[in-house]
# Entry
Amino acid sequence: MLRRSLLTAALWAFAGMQVQAQDQVQAHPVVVELFTSQGCSSCPPADALLAQLADRDDVIPLALHVDYWDYIGWKDRFAMPGFTQRQKGYARAHGEKMIYTPQIIVNGAEDAVGSRPMKVAELIQKHAMHPTPVQLQISRQGGQLIVNAQSDAVMMPCEIHIVRYEPRREVDITRGENAGQRITYTHIVENWQVVGEWDGEDPYQARFPIEGDQPVVVLLQEPRYGRIVAAARLR
# Structure
């Protein structure tokens, strides 16, 4: 109950700060990556925090389930080795020697313990206050995803990432640290691809094949796990 109260207070505080800043800042979504696991007893509060961000248009929450908790008796059915590698890549880029769950990375640049809502809200607000010079637009046309990007300033080259996620799923956990719990997971990333690179100077347009009706997210991220300079989502 205390954790829920802290979470609610943090999100209300964040909403209040946004109202004060909305006339000064160009709206652009902040990307919140949560590294989590069904086998981690500290993760449910962070999973709940991510779910609370679901209805915001100014935040893109993504849950990346890692596989290094599977050995203790419960295999996370959403986990992928690539997500563990992405977390390790961030650790190297940020000069960290260890990885842990639950960890939140905001816009590829700063991290926080995922179960600390006030710190997460603070980082979201901080990054929302720094508008990007990049305009990123995405749309669907039949079985294709159309990506357009341009910038008002010279940028360094960026990788183009396409991410697909499952909005919500409930899981009954029967073994491991969370045995006996039914946990609701949201924004469950099921596919993550690096599909190209933008030079950061010339206007960019490309088309990519896309299937299914899952939400799609496009990220422009500096190489080697750098900052995310722009993001867009189609629900």
